């Protein structure tokens, strides 16, 4: 992964090509791979800070970040993904470390809430997130809210 480039931009800073590549990655993971036929566009992209890694223009890891008061009372991280071809290489851990650091520095906020797919609860616990609610279905996939202070 010598050609890995990290980028962080607000929605208005994204080029059309960058947003296209981000959406392609999100659709590949959250709709195609997870067989989840639900709309990917939810009206929050315009309010997000987008953090991603790319190799030769292809998005290989991505998440979006929100200041407090947008998705939750706390700041939040969402749409966390790693391209299927780049898993098991610690890229997801690097992405989440960057995301937490960015939220803390950019938003001056250390309290972060996420909606985690249940199979990833152990992964998020490694970063200090704890479950704060009951399991619920989001797009027919079990999720649990987690918080990190």
CATH architecture identity:
3-Layer(aba) Sandwich
CATH fold node name: Aminopeptidase
Question: What oligomeric arrangement do these chains adopt?
Answer: single chain
CATH C-level class is Alpha Beta
Give the mean pLDDT: 94
Shape: globular
CATH homology-level superfamily: Gcn5-related N-acetyltransferase (GNAT)
Please report which band the strand proportion falls in: under 5%, 5-15%, 15-25%, 25-35%, 35-45% or over 45%. 25-35%
Structural class: alpha+beta
Distance between the termini: 32 Å
Give helix and strand order, one letter per element, not per position.
EHEEEHEHEEE
Domain N-acetyltransferase: 9-149
InterPro entries: Acyl_CoA_acyltransferase, GNAT_dom
Organism: Kaistella carnis
Protein name: GNAT family N-acetyltransferase
Write up this protein:
The protein is 26% helix and 34% strand. It has 149 residues and is an alpha+beta fold. The protein has a single domain, classed as Gcn5-related N-acetyltransferase (GNAT) (Aminopeptidase, 3-Layer(aba) Sandwich). Strands 1, 2, 3, 4, 5, 6, 7 and 8 form an eight-stranded mixed beta sheet that branches. The mean pLDDT is 94.
Q: Keywords for this structure?
A:
single chain; 149 residues; alpha+beta; Aminopeptidase; eight-stranded mixed sheet
Give me a quick take on this structure.
The protein has about 150 residues and is an alpha+beta fold. The protein has helices spanning about 15-35, 90-105, 120-125, and strands spanning about 5-10, 50-55, 60-65, 75-80, 110-115, 130, 135-140, 140-149. Strands 1, 2, 3, 4, 5, 6, 7 and 8 form an 8-stranded mixed sheet that branches.
